[in-house]
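Input.
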Amino acid sequence: MIISTLLGIVKKTANESSNRNQENNGSQFSLHTQSTDDILRETPGSRGGNMEKERIKIDFLIHDLKVPLAVIEAGITSLLNRQEKYGKLTHKQEKVLRRALRNTRVTQTLVNDALELGRSKEGVVHVSTCSISELVKNTLLEVFDLTNDNLSEQMRTCSDLSSLKEVLGAHGVSLNVENRLWAQEVCLDEPKVRQILRNLLNNALKYKRNTVEVTIRGEGDTLVLTVSDDGEGIPQEYHERIFECYFQMNGQGACPVRGHGLGLAGVLVLVEDMGGKLTLHSDRGCGATFSVTIPLSETC
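Output.
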C-alpha cells in the first residue's frame, strides 16, 4: 500500500515539475532535449578530444540524477507529513520511511559532491561563513546516517560538544577539538571541506580495527583536519598510488586488498584546488593518519 501510494506521489510530482519547467522556463527545458554532441559542438574549447566529450557526458548524467532524487524526496516527505491524505503510518513504517528519506538526502549530497568536484577542477571556489561545530557535526551525521543509524539518532540528541564526544566515544570514534574552536566561525568553501572530511572519515571507518580518531585544530590562518584509523596500514610503496582513481593494493603477503575508489583521489583534487596540503603517515600494520591543511579566508 505504501509503495503504490509513493509511486503515485512520485508520478504526480514528476508531471507537475515537468509542466512547471515547460511553462516557466522554456529555454531550460529545451536544453534537456539537445544531444550531448550538439552541446559539445557549441561549447568553446570542446575540440579537446574524446576525454573532454566523455567528461561532459558524465557531468550531464550526474546533473540529471538530481531531478528523480528530488521527486523521491518529495514523495516520501508527503507520505510522512500528510498522513491525513495518504493514510496513517505505523511506527515501523514511519521509521523505515524516515531512514529512506535520510538516505535519499545523503544520495543528493553525493550527487552534489560529484558536481562540486567538477567545479573544483575548473577552479570554482565559493567561500562563506560557517561554524566549526555545524561543519563537523553535519558531516558526521551524513556519514553515520549511512553506516550507523543508531549512532546518528543518538547524535541528534546531543546539545553540546561534551555529550557529542561521549556518544561518539561509545562507538569507537574519538573527536578531539577545543571548545573555543568548536564555537568559532570561519571563512572557507564549506561544501568542499565537508566532502573532504566525509571521504576521509568513510575511509577510516572502512579499514579500522577498533577505533577512529578525528582531530580538528587551528594553526594560524589555516584549519587542520586529521583522521586516523588503527587498521592494517598502508605500506610506503603505495603512498602515492592510493591517490589514483580506483587503485587497489594487491593482496599479497600480510597486506589485504584495500580499495580506495574515487574517494582519496577526489580529496586530493579538492585540497589542492583550495591551495591546501594533504599528508599521509602510515606503514604496514600501523594504521593510517591523513591530515589536511586548509587556508582560511580573511573575509567572505
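Strands lie at 128-131, 173-176, 185-188, 212-219, 222-229, 277-282, 288-295.
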